[in-house]
Amino acid sequence: MKIRIANEKDYSELALMKWEHGAEDDIDYGEHNLDGVDKDEFIDEFISFLKEQTEYEIFIAEDNGYPVSAMFIHLIPKLPKPNGNAKYIAYLTNVYTKKAYRNQGIGTKLLDFIKKYLTDKKCELLFAWPSDNSAAWYQRNGFKEENEIFECALCEE
């Protein structure tokens, strides 16, 4: 198992993983992620997004050259302040491990790699919005449910 930053060669596989994740949530939680969605069109859209939105850093665990787990980080620069050490806060999103690779510690190893990477970049805080089903995993990996975030909805998802 190798952990690394993703590159453009990984985008197709990452798009397929996102599709699989949506399909699983449709089955497991009664969601409707794939209703009326063309798979090929979605994959093209996802790949285009990754090419255009370069502010995301994508970390993967790979097995035999193929991504089996992925996590996306969006670094948000902090304004400088007197005696301030931290340069960023980071948003963790799109966390997914293929079914056959779950419960083997791969996600935890990938997250540990990311936390070290972010610490080296002087990142103050890593935040995520976990689902109810993943909250325990986040807590086991150092996340705390401490801050309340106020939201202002602007459009429907």
Protein model, in words:
With 157 residues, the chain is an alpha+beta fold. It has one domain (2-140): Gcn5-related N-acetyltransferase (GNAT) (Aminopeptidase, 3-Layer(aba) Sandwich). 34% of the residues lie in helices and 25% in strands. The protein is built from four helices and five strands. The protein has helices at 11-29, 39-52, 106-120, 135-140; strands spanning 2-5, 56-63, 66-77, 88-97, 123-127. The chain has a five-stranded mixed β-sheet with strand order 1-2-3-4-5. A hairpin with a 2-residue loop joins strand 2 (56-63) and strand 3 (66-77). The longest helix is centred in the first third of the chain and has 19 residues, at 11-29.
